Amino acid sequence: MGKALDGVRILDFTHVQSGPTCTQLLAWFGADVIKVERAGAGDITREQLRDLPDADSLYFTMLNGNKRSLTLDTKNPQGKRVLERMIRECDVLVENFAPGALDRMGFSWEHIQSLNPRLIVASVKGFGPGPYEDCKVYENVAQCVGGAASTTGFDDGPPVVSGAQIGDSGTGLHLALGIVTALFQRTHTGRGQKVLAAMQDGVLNLCRVKLRDQQRLERTGVMKEYPQFPNSAFGDAVPRAGNASGGGQPGWILKCKGWETDPNAYIYFIAQAPVWDRICKLIGREEWIDDPHFATPSARLPHLKDIFAEIEHWTMARTKFEAMAVLNRHDIPCGPILSMKEIANDASLRASGTIVEVEHPVRGKYLTVGNPIKLSDSPTEVTRSPMLGEHTDEVLAEFGYSETEIRSLRASGAI
Ligand code: COA
């Protein structure tokens, strides 16, 4: 079966996490992703956080599946000429270098345009235009400057960063959307364009509901679904909301059977208004159905702590999976807190291809997260990440280099 992005050639100058997430997605959709790396070194993550002495790390292998690897020194004069030829024939160049690195390499937007006006040049940067545009940025910096850290955690503790890599992988997702959108526009205009996804902007986009809350707070001085209500004061900025739901239906994390020894014996419980009567019956508080202090969503807001404490008596008598089974039968939204160990062994995630086992020539089998986006006409088969320079000769031959020319490039240190 053909793939959605069959025929799209991508020159992949990405490294670490944000850019590689983006190009791995495009590879899963069928694009030919040629990862360009420096000979001898490659993407720094090949050797970071290694669990096996001489094998590419899981950090690298889990972000670079379905790609080909070409070694090329783009600061070497002959390497530059190779890159120019590739730019002429590719559709997209993706990079997440520190700001200005592409220009310093001699590949300004103007130069790239003169080589191939159809090329889409897509970049992840830490910040968009402004005072910080020249700064290097990593994941947690993005979470801090994008509004996630100040709004995550509990109000009696410091700001907290999330385990979800919203700065890196989140921005990679944004960039991938920008690239396919630019490819679509090119079908009408024939022109490439620059695509920029700044990590601060990507995180802020994912924290949109917190900017909503900032404006609500400024107008009303209070947010009744936040745990600060009704007993503590609000300041002038959105406070950390603990585990409160970000939406209109109150929620909290509640203990389940075994919580004393199992750090993940918890369930997220949503006291959704349409099923309030069922919740009351289930936990044995039927009198709350008609009690004016509990009968309506707004009447319940000052009592959320008491309500969740009462529901917790019920959840603590059950394991998180038992509670989930009963609550789902009553159509009450909830979710067990799953550990990574539980997720790694989840049969349905494996069956759907969201968790995939891949065979690697050096490290053997490893687990990776497959394509979370399923297209019925473009299924994803996850393949292993490439060894450094594994496809150098193959790719150069496809770009018209003879064996003799490839030997000479190697002798010059360009590849
Ligand atoms: N041939 C020759 N030179 C190459 C090369 C190649 N194939 N690939 C990379 N280089 C050079 C670059 O041109 C750059 O040289 P310069 O400093 O002379 O301009 C150099 O390698 C280092 O690249 P850089 O991107 O600056 O790496 P770094 O390790 O110093 O910084 C980051 C890493 C992630 C902080 C930085 O790249 C960054 O801020 N990126 C944008 C934001 C981002 O994506 N952050 C999240 C990462 S998950």
UniProtKB/TrEMBL annotation:
Which residues of the sequence carry a binding annotation for substrate? G247, G248, Q249
Keyword terms of this UniProt record: Transferase
Keyword Glycoprotein in the entry? The reply is no
GO BP term, pick one: oxalate catabolic process
User: Record's Gene3D superfamilies?
Assistant: Crotonobetainyl-coa:carnitine coa-transferase, domain 1, formyl-coa transferase, domain 3
Q: Which GO terms describe its molecular function?
A: formyl-CoA transferase activity
**Active-site residue numbers:** D168
UniProt superkingdom: Bacteria
Residues annotated for CoA binding in this entry:
17-18, 38, 72-75, 96-98, 104, 136-139
Give the pathway annotation.
Metabolic intermediate degradation; oxalate degradation; CO(2) and formate from oxalate: step 1/2
Q: Which family does it belong to?
A: Belongs to the CoA-transferase III family. Frc subfamily.
List the protein's name: Formyl-CoA:oxalate CoA-transferase
Organism of origin? Paraburkholderia bannensis
